[in-house]
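Before a computer can learn anything about folding, someone has to put a protein's shape into writing. The outcome of that step, for a single protein, is printed below:
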Amino acid sequence: MIDLVWTTSAADDYRYFEVQRSTDGSTFADIGRVDGSGPAGDTGSFTYSDEADIANTNFYRLKLFTDDDHYTYSSIIAIQPQVTSGLRFFFDADRKELQVTVQQSSRAAIVGASGQLLKTLTLVAGRNSVSMSDVAPGVYFLRDEGGNTTRRFVVFK
């Protein structure tokens, strides 16, 4: 299951959101609908849980509808769930954050493509957010403390 979470600012007034998923990043299908904010000017936090059994990279976006039925699209995010030794993660390109979920407290490392150690992480059970805004665009690897699990991710500008 993938939990999608987003917020709107006080200036946004969306009637509803269509949640869309793609396996190739270009052809999207509607998978759900979430009602929008209350009165204009309210900030909102919204969630949608994709119950699909996801084994490969999936791409998500929102189709945001205003009261006059005009719509825009959000940025596309790629989520690649990884379940090995209780370690799952995805890279949020818009926020330049690595979201790491572990079943129990553990340590991990982020290394560059040439093997240089960039960050050592102390992870608590549950979801951990790791800022990647201080690293250059490129290919990186998340490695668990035992070296049993190594997963690749890409940081874009």
